[in-house]
Automatic annotation (TrEMBL):
InterPro entries: C2_dom, C2_domain_sf, C2B_Copine, Copine, Copine_C, VWF_A, vWFA_dom_sf. CDD domains: C2A_Copine, C2B_Copine. Residues 529-540 have a biased composition (Pro residues). One of its GO terms (cellular component) is plasma membrane. Residues 527-546 are annotated as: Disordered. The keyword Cytoplasm does not apply. Residues 1-121, 122-260 form the C2 domain. This is C2 domain-containing protein.
Length: 546
C-alpha cells in the first residue's frame, strides 16, 4: 500500500499557558510538544519514533511536522503519544512538564471516519487510564492520516523505433528496450524491459504501465536511462544505443530521442492515480466508513475442553490455540468495523437441552442475535459455549460458507465486504460441497480465512487456498482466489512468546485481504466513494490540510 501523513492537533487543559508517523502507508508526527512512540511486533517495548516542533503559549496547538510511517493492514501497529509543556531547551523529557498520554493503533486512525481520530489524554499510568492527571483536565489529541499521493501514481507509456541499426547478418534486428532508474550514488537499477519485436527496424512496442515509484522513486527530475538492444537467442544481445531522459521530460508528451543516427519516439504518456485499499476505507459506505464486515468467526469444536490435551483446554495461565487465533486476528480487524459488533458462530456440537447436533449455532446462545460486542465479547462467548455444548463431529464447512454468502449476495454495490474466519483442527467432512460453496462465493464481496490449529494434516485446506491451482467444482473454476489458509503451528514462537506467535499469525492471515477486496471492486468497476470533507470544529474556519 502507499503512504499516509498525520496532522496532529491537541486541545490541552488548564495548565499555565505562559509555561506551556510496497508497505501500505507512511506517517509523520510531532507536537507543543508531542513525542510519538511505536511498539515492535512481539514485545511490549516502546521506542521513540519522533518529536514535533514546540509551539509556544497555546492550549490548542496545531503541529506542522508530520511523521511518516509504513502502514500495514495486516499488522497491529501500536502508537503512543506523550504531550509535554516545554520549560527549557533540554532534550531530556524529564526536564519538562508531562501533560498527558494517548494510545491507539494506526488501523484505528485509518479506519475512523475521515481517517480522523480524537482521543482523550490520560494520566500515563497505563493504556487503560483515560482519567488524566489528578486535579487537571488533560484535554484531547486529534490525529489525522492521509495517504501520500506520489506513492500511487502509475504511468502508461508506449514507444516506437525508426530505422534502428541492423545487427543481424540474416534478416533485420529484433529490438527491445531496457529502462533503468538512477540511484542517489550514481548507479542504475533496471526497472522495466519491453517485449522483443521480431525482425524489424521500425518496431512499435506495446504500451506498458509502471509505478512512478519504480520508474524514478517519485523524483520527477531523476535521470531515466533507456537502452536499445537487438535480441539474440543465446543471450548475448547486441547493443544498439541508449538515451537519457526524466519523468518530467516524458510527461511533456510525444517527443523523439536520438540514438546515435536513429531514433526512438515516445508515442503516448498517460498518468493514472492508482485506486488503493485506503481509498475505499476513507470513501466508505455506511456512516462514511466502508463496512468491512468481519462477519463471522466460526469455530469447529473438538475434544473435551476440561482435558489439558484438548485444543480448547481453558488453562488459567495462557490462551489455548483457538483463543490465540481469535484474539490475534480479531484485535486487528475490529479497528475497521464501525460498530465492532461481530456475529460469532460455532459448528460441530450437540446443543442443550436435547443434544441436537448443529453445524451452525450462536456462540452466545442467542440464535436471533449472535452478535458479540468486540473481540472481548467474542472471546467471552467462546468460553461460555465450551461450558454449555458438547463438542461433536463431523466437520461441515459448506453450511457456514453458504450462510455468509447469502448475506454477501444481498449487498453487491461495494458498500459492504464480508470476511469469514474459520478456525479448525481437523479434516473437512464435506469437501465436495465446500469446494462448490467457495466457487459460488468467488463472485461475491467476501473472503474466507482458515486457520488450522493442532497437529492434523491440512492437505485439504491447502487445496482450498488455491494459490497454486485455482479451486474448481464440477468443471467450473472460482472467479477469483478468496481463500487464505495458514497452519497456526508454523507461527508458534519456540521461546514461548505468545505475543510474537499471534502477531506472526495475524500478519500472514490478513495479508491477502486488501488484494482480494480490490480484485472484487476492480472487476465490478466499483469506484471508491469520495472521502468526507475535512473536519471543521464548530465555530472554526476550515483548517488548511497539510
Amino acid at each position: 500500500m502507499n503512504s499516509s501523513s498525520f496532522l496532529n492537533m491537541a486541545a490541552i487543559g488548564d495548565f499555565d499557558p505562559l509555561s506551556a508517523t510496497i508497505p501500505a502507508t507512511k506517517v509523520e508526527i510531532t507536537v507543543s510538544f508531542c513525542v510519538l512512540y511505536t511498539q515492535g511486533i512481539g514485545n511490549k517495548e516502546w521506542r521513540e519514533f519522533g518529536r514535533t516542533e514546540v509551539i509556544d503559549n497555546t492550549l490548542n496547538p496545531e503541529f506542522v511536522r508530520k511523521f511518516i510511517l509504513d502502514y500495514f493492514f495486516e499488522e497491529r501497529q501500536n502508537l503512543r503519544f506523550d504531550l509535554y509543556d516545554v520549560d527549557s531547551k533540554s532534550t531530556n523529557l524529564s526536564k519538562h512538564d508531562f501533560l498527558g498520554q494517548a494510545y491507539c493503533t494506526l488501523g484505528e486512525i485509518v479506519g475512523s471516519l475521515g481517517s480522523r481520530l480524537e482521543k482523550p489524554l490520560g494520566c500515563g499510568l497505563s493504556p487503560l487510564c483515560v482519567e488524566g492527571i489528578p486535579g487537571k483536565k488533560c484535554g484531547t489529541i486529534i490525529v489525522k492520516a492521509e495517504e501520500l499521493s506520489n506513492c500511487r501514481e502509475s504511468v502508461m507509456m508506449q514507444f516506437c523505433g525508426n530505422k534502428l541499426d541492423k545487427k543481424d547478418f540474416f534478416g533485420k534486428s529484433d529490438p527491445f528496450l531496457v529502462f533503468y532508474r538512477s540511484n542517489e550514488d550514481g548507479t542504475f537499477t533496471i526497472c522495466h524491459k519491453t517485449e522483443v519485436v521480431k525482425n524489424t527496424l521500425n518496431p512499435v512496442w506495446q504500451a506498458f504501465k509502471i509505478p512512478v515509484r519504480a520508474l524514478c522513486n517519485g523524483d520527477y527530475d531523476r535521470t531515466i536511462k533507456i537502452e536499445v538492444y537487438d535480441w539474440d537467442r543465446d543471450g548475448s544481445h547486441d547493443f544498439i544505443g541508449e538515451f537519457s531522459t526524466s519523468y518530467r521530460e516524458l510527461s511533456r508528451g510525444q517527443s523523439q530521442f536520438n540514438v546515435y543516427e536513429v531514433s526512438v519516439t515516445l508515442l503516448s504518456f498517460l498518468v493514472d492515480i492508482e485506486v488503493t485499499f485506503l481509498d475505499y476505507i476513507k470513501g466508505g459506505g455506511e456512516n462514511g466508513v466502508l463496512n468491512l464486515n468481519w462477519y463471522f468467526f466460526s469455530l469447529w469444536f473438538l475434544g473435551n475442553p476440561a482435558q489439558p490435551t484438548s485444543l480448547h483446554y481453558m488453562s488459567p495461565y495462557q490462551l489455548n490455540a483457538y483463543a490465540m487465533a481469535l484474539k490475534a486476528v480479531g484485535e486487528i480487524i475490529q479497528d475497521y468495523d464501525s460498530d465492532k459488533m461481530f456475529p460469532a458462530l460455532g459448528f460441530g456440537a450437540k446443543l442443550p437441552p436435547d443434544g441436537r447436533v448443529s453445524h451452525e449455532f450462536a456462540l452466545n446462545g442467542n440464535p436471533q442475535n449472535p452478535y458479540c460486542n468486540g473481540i472481548d465479547g467474542v472471546m467471552e462467548a467462546y468460553y461460555q459455549s465450551l461450558k454449555s455444548v458438547q463438542l461433536y463431529g463431523p466437520t461441515n464447512f459448506s453450511p457456514v460458507i453458504n450462510h455468509v454468502a447469502r448475506y454477501a449476495a444481498s449487498v453487491k454495490d461495494g458498500s459492504q465486504y464480508f470476511v469469514l474466519l474459520i478456525i479448525t483442527d481437523g479434516v473437512i467432512s464435506d469437501m465436495a460441497q465446500t469446494k462448490e460453496s467457495i466457487v459460488n462465493a468467488s463472485c461475491l464481496p467476501m473472503s474466507i480465512i482458515i486457520v488450522g490449529v493442532g497437529p492434523a494434516e491440512f492437505d485439504a485446506m491447502v487445496e482450498l487456498d488455491g494459490d497454486e491451482v485455482r479451486i474448481s467444482s464440477r468443471g467450473r473454476y472460482a472467479e477469483r482466489d478468496i481463500v487464505q489458509f495458514v497452519p497456526f503451528r508454523d507461527y508458534i514462537d519456540r521461546t514461548g512468546n505468545h505475543i510474537l506467535s499471534m502477531a506472526r499469525l495475524a500478519k500472514d492471515v490478513l495479508a491477502e485481504i486488501p488484494d482480494q477486496f480490490l480484485s472484487y471492486m476492480r472487476t465490478r468497476g466499483i469506484k471508491p466513494s469520495p472521502a468526507p470533507p475535512p473536519y471543521t470544529p464548530p465555530g472554526h474556519p476550515l483548517q488548511t490540510q497539510i
